[in-house]
Specification:
- With about 375 residues, this protein is α/β, with parallel strands linked by helices.
- The chain is built from twelve helices and nine strands.
- The chain has a six-stranded mixed sheet with strand order 2-3-1-4-5-6, sandwiched between helices. It has a three-stranded antiparallel sheet with strand order 7-8-9, with no helix packed on it.
- GO terms for molecular function: GTP binding.
């Protein structure tokens, strides 16, 4: 009897010891779903993040230097700079460089797509066609992966942001700048950047910024709009977003060399008249550009997914359905008896899957509309 009592006592004791980590009666009204953001945070940190940045601009504007300065890494360790003879024969090509960056346990898979040869030719009428094809290829690849059977490990190589470098030596936008941004503003988030801002005075930078923004508005070009702050945000964040909006287009300069200024090591450029500090907001907008990119990285990905990719996807589906209808009509006109055979030859497996998914989405939208109508009727 005493053995039974001891064993039952030990069982109760161990059970009570095992429940020390759980919430007790001393915290009434606490369910625990306030801990859900921590679960999402842990899962995101474990999985890591992906981001793809495209840099476009003429040669010699400091694109590679700026990217290396932004992420404190060397993305082009083995790059060979072509000479003048090779540049004459060079066409626009795209080079994607991927690097894994880790900071305080958070991993970022950064892919930078460079466009050497853009704007260097005498006739630049077709210089952006390769860039457009590359962006569409990434959307098409993601669409095929999303429609496939294995959707667990999809690599997202879609362009989330495009830094477009504007020359500081002109008086605004060139015809190539206008045409390129018009072609791309519906496919990617464009962030205009004035390169080599250290060759201009503050008054010249302000004048050039105003001129560029006027030309962007007059040509109907849509650049990436920074999202408005919610009413419950703190004042410091609201002021930061306000300053970022006023700084567009960002006047920047990059540097990878460390210089000593007043006993401190800073990254900058040494001139006979002094030092341009890259990370000094009084000298250029480098810090503002980096703050915009880091604090709005998630929003850039969401805009790419919900706006640009959905536009491509809807256009792709619409073209596929129209092509299938034309194929079906032509088959029926040729031979009514073999109409079903013609339909099967036109509808391939991937298009059929896409069509089924579109029908499923329509059914879900109808169900949501019916539910909303019922809720309004109950009110």
């Amino acid at each position: 009897m005493s053995n039974i009592f001891c064993s039952s006592f030990n069982f109760c004791f161990f059970n009570m010891a095992d429940t020390k980590g759980f919430s007790s009666i001393e915290t009434p009204g606490y369910v625990g779903f306030a801990n859900l953001p921590n679960q999402v945070h842990r899962k995101s940190v474990k999985k890591g993040f992906e981001f793809t940045l495209m840099v476009v601009g003429e040669s010699g504007l400091g694109k590679s230097t700026l990217v290396n300065s932004l992420f404190l890494t060397d993305l082009y360790p083995e790059r060979i700079i072509p000479d003048a003879i090779e540049k004459q024969k060079q066409t626009v090509k795209l080079e994607a460089s991927t690097v894994e960056i880790e900071e305080r346990g958070v991993k970022l898979r950064l892919t930078v797509v460079d466009t050497p040869g853009f704007g260097d030719a005498i006739d630049n009428s077709n210089s952006f066609s390769a860039i457009l094809e590359y962006i569409d290829e990434q959307y098409e690849r993601f669409l095929q992966d999303e429609s496939g059977l294995n959707r667990r490990n999809i690599v997202d190589n879609r362009i989330h942001c495009c830094f477009y470098f504007i020359s500081p030596f002109g008086h605004g936008l060139k015809p190539l700048d206008v045409e390129f941004m018009k072609k791309l503003h519906s496919k990617v988030n464009i962030v205009p950047v004035i390169a080599k801002a250290d060759c201009l005075t503050k008054k010249e930078i302000l004048r050039l910024k105003c001129r560029i923004m006027q030309e962007i508005e007059s040509h109907g070009i849509k650049i990436y709009p920074l999202p408005d702050c919610d009413s419950d945000e703190d004042e410091d964040y609201k002021e930061q977003v306000k300053q970022l909006k006023e700084a567009v287009p960002f006047a920047v300069c990059g540097a990878n060399t460390l210089l000593e200024v007043k006993g401190k090591k800073v990254r900058g450029r040494l001139y006979p008249w002094g030092v341009v500090e890259v990370e000094n907001p009084d000298h250029c907008d480098f810090i503002k550009l980096r703050t915009m990119l880091i604090t709005h990285m998630q929003d850039l990905q969401e805009v790419t997914q919900e706006v640009h990719y959905e536009n491509y996807r809807s256009d792709r589906l619409a073209k596929g359905i129209k092509g299938k209808e034309n194929g079906i009509k032509s088959e029926r006109g040729d031979n009514n008896g073999t109409a079903q055979v013609g339909v099967n030859s036109v509808l391939n497996e991937k298009d059929r899957i896409l069509q089924e998914k579109e029908a499923e989405l329509r059914r879900m939208q109808e169900m949501l509309a019916q539910m909303q109508a019922r809720m309004q009727a109950q009110k």
